[in-house]
Model the fold of this input.
Amino acid sequence: MVKRSEVSETELLERLIEDSKWISENYEELRKYEGKVIAVKNKRIILASESILDLLNELEKKENAAYILVEAIPPKNASFIL
Amino acid sequence: MVKIICHLRKFLRGRYFPFIPFLFKYSRFSGMIEALVDTGSPFTVLSTSDALKLKLPITKMRSGEPVSVAGFRFFNHQLNNVTLVFRTEDGKIFTLSHLKVGVLIPTKIDKKTLEEVKHIPSIIGNDFLEEHRFALHYDPARKLAYLECI
Done:
């Protein structure tokens, strides 16, 4: 595991932006995870779960979850006004 | 002029929504966040799921103005002295410090509720845009969105 202190803020931000962009560009494909939560690192889904709590617990075993993009994919028919 | 690119994704009902990635820092807590830019929200808030991810002590944060989001009731718990770090279009780091940012803390904290609110994203609201003089340029037809500091 790469420790937070070994990676510069700029590098973290670069990775975040690349992963965020990847999620946006592949969002239609990620629809197969509807209703689930996914963790994305380096443009790869490293974990998926129906439960946010289970995913974070599992993620913490191998990564610092705070520095991984975690995305909940709403069900297709989900509708809410924020 | 500062320009920060948003990423558009079909978040709900096949419609595009603008999301912005940034580093969030508060006290000893920090991490990567993506927030929905929502001009309809008067508040900038961290979602419950992001608060869990950052390991914020949510059970000790049950205070703040009651707010309703997507049909759920929350306390808008205020954090002071928050730092947000963005990357600008030309690759520079843009940091905003000493910010007040809310955290959506469900009025009822149990496993069922935490799972039910997992789809509610963090939000960059009108307060942020106004206080930091950002304009949102949003063109879903061209899949283009960015914040520009006036």
